Amino acid sequence: MVKAHIVNHTHWDREWYFTSADALVLSEQLFTEVIDELKKHPEANFVLDGQLSILDDYVALYPEKLADIKQLIADEQLFIGPWFTQTDAFFAHGESILRNAMIGIFDSKKYGDYMKIGYLPDTFGFNAQMPTLLEHAGFDNVIFWRGLHLGEHVDSPYFKWQGLGEDASIYAINMPQGYGTGMLLEPTSAYVDGRLDPAIDFIEKYSKTTEVLIPSGNDQLNIISNFAEKLAEINKMGRHDYQLSTYQDFIQYVRELPDLEEYRGEFRSPVLARVHKTIGSSRMNIKLKSASLEQKLLTRIEPLLVIAKASGISISERLLMHTWKKLLEGQAHDSLAGCVSDPVAEDILHRMKEADELCDSIENTIVKKIADDLMLEANEILVFNTDLHDFDGFKEIQVVSEHKNIHFPAFPDATIVQEEFIPSRENVLEEMPAGNRFIEEPGYYVLQVRVKVELSGLGYRVIAFEENDRELDSMVASDDVAIANDFYKITFENGEIALEKANGERTTSFITLEDDVNAGDTYDYSPLAGDIAELFTFSEAKTEKSSEVERLILTGKNDFPLDRLTKEGHGELQIELILELKKGSELLDVKIEVDNQIKNHRLRLKVNTGVTTDYNIASLPFGYIERKPVVPANWQETYSEMPIDIEPLEQSVTLTNEVKSCTIFTRGVKEYQQLNQQLALTLLATTGQLGKPDLAYRPGRASGDTTKKGHVLIETAGAQLLGKHEFSLAIYLGDQAFDEHKTAERTKAFNQANVSYQRQPFNHFLHRLDNKIQKTERRLGAKQTLGMLNLPEEYLVSACHPSYYAADKYIIRIENPTNAPQKLDLPDVAFDYVNAIEEIVENQDNTIPAYGAVTLRLDI
């Protein structure tokens, strides 16, 4: 006889094929019934899906229920948190996953205690560093479903899961048959003999334990009424011992099990459940916007808020958390994956639009207030360094000037890399002390200027330009079809892009774009039998060059059927590919602008790396994972979908051998495939349907409930992504093997923020709030030059943000994405070691663990 820990819960998708507004209406009824049932039955308990956002939404409707909720939590009947939303674990940045826990835990405290469980019941697989992230957020455990292969990863569903390093290890509890294993809980022989006991037998067969976990709940499912009475009846009928339990009780049981297996690695195997291995390219507009916001928050807004506090500007951390929440609501597993209906996708993008506006407004407020306090002149530019190291290199700054006849006396190599001229306007009102008058407002230039500048860590300085008798150096159009710097030469000849390295090694067909039919849905790409991918051809080439920057610009328009799947109609795919080399830079910058006017297709960018190897290395939080592109034969016998070798990345992917390497750095492109020496990155995989049955890579039922009884197929015209899309990448080719630390440094350089501000009189709407931010009469005391912290170059900063709990402190997180511990030596810096939720932790050896991070709390 096995003891079954039966836990009553609901899995609550905030949105899916229904919207968050729909879910709120459901929760208004259901959560009220949950509260009533728990009050009526003090022996009962209920798990509210491990995410706080749904409870916040409900309490906004029913603030009078707060006292009951707090009491039920205190009585350990209602379990909430720890997450703000049920995070995706592959396509969200590691810091976003941490913010999800940090904000969920912070907000949980207004209700009482939170569930100290890394509870992720439906996420589509897990990156190999989840133990590291969870442990850093204060958890020693995880409960999950998808991605585990029993008998291959581990024999038992209860084991120890280790991060890539030696220091992070958590208790892992897998639900092999999902969070709905014991749903409905009917005291009938049909239920006990047909569902419950077979599930217990299956788990016991693998676990070989005397106790097993049986979650009882499902999507948007209500609390089970009279739970104890129904269990008593079931105990009279079944072959096992069925007990009302909690996740916490079962975790304690697992903690005490001897000789638990240990596993290190990711969970991405679609055996008992689908993980949707090609979902990394579904609704790319959501993924691109999410990644853009992550970088804006991490590299601009959070460090600027620390600088603001040091400059006497008070902006609440609650505004920062509010901004993060807008993004995190779109990083739930269905939302960020993109397997949602069109109305939901519109909601996600609107919330991200709001987050983007909040970011811009926060930045606008900070930089303008500092500039006002310093009383800067119109020819003075405030340039920021949001990194925590002293900076000596190139920044791109925005300059607004009546003409281009300017120069920077202290920076003679300044170069215009982009420009826009705004014509003059007539009959413009000017308000004067003597009265109003109408004038002609002169035209002006908005310039992006590349300037080599030294900046103190986490600070700013003021630089000035002056009028000159000649124009500032700028990009000049050229008929040449080759660009070069000290590292690479790139040519376009006979419709082909070739690259030559400084050592003379030449690669032909270096970059190609390939398009094929997508017969899949919003969950997965699917090939069409007999389809042959077509290479995109460029018809025009031009270059722009200056002393500092050279660009090769290729454009083309290719004809395709409007619908690639049905081959009906006429459509066009127009692409502009911009390759840019900067003086002194070992990165080749790649920008792709796609005007997509065709449907049901997949567009991939292929890079011929020239590296012969049988494995690839992809980035993930605080580290890198090695993968080999292997698809098992006869996969249908074992897997619920093809374990295709199309894989996720966080920010980079590399091919390497002993003598050379090629790394591609991405901003929002999340899916790649190794094809011998090539790396193929998916830019778009468009489709017109939420879920389809019988796909080539995914046989059988349709995902997304669309082939359940009474459900209908849901069209997703918005997932065709008609219109314009922009992609940004960088490529590094080295004559040495892959180096983890240097690759991480290049990732930071690729994502460095360019933050500047000018109190110019020409356009008060370049920044939306310029015209409304009032200059205070009281001086803030901002310094003319600021440098808050200069870390040694060998330390890689993952985050810098204001403390959530102390107004006079700020947080920095230093990561170590290598296989060796790193000594932390900061003799001139006073700090406390904390974890991500700012609990004091011990670090007696003063080390950053391999593939790990340390968080420090400092005084502002």
Account of the 3D structure:
Pfam families: Alpha-mann_mid, Glyco_hydro_38C, Glyco_hydro_38N. Residues 274-352 form the Glycoside hydrolase family 38 central domain. Belongs to the glycosyl hydrolase 38 family. Keywords: Glycosidase, Hydrolase, Metal-binding. This is Alpha-mannosidase. The protein has 860 residues and is of the alpha+beta class. Helices cover 22% and strands 31% of the residues. The protein contains 13 helices and 47 strands. A ten-stranded antiparallel sheet has the order 20-27-28-29-30-39-36-35-32-33, with helices on one face. β32 (616-620) and β33 form a beta hairpin. α9 runs parallel beside α12. It is globular and about 95 Å long. 50% of the residues are buried.
List keywords for this structure.
6-stranded antiparallel β-sheet, 13 helices, 860 residues, alpha+beta, single chain, 10-stranded antiparallel β-sheet, 31% strand, 47 strands
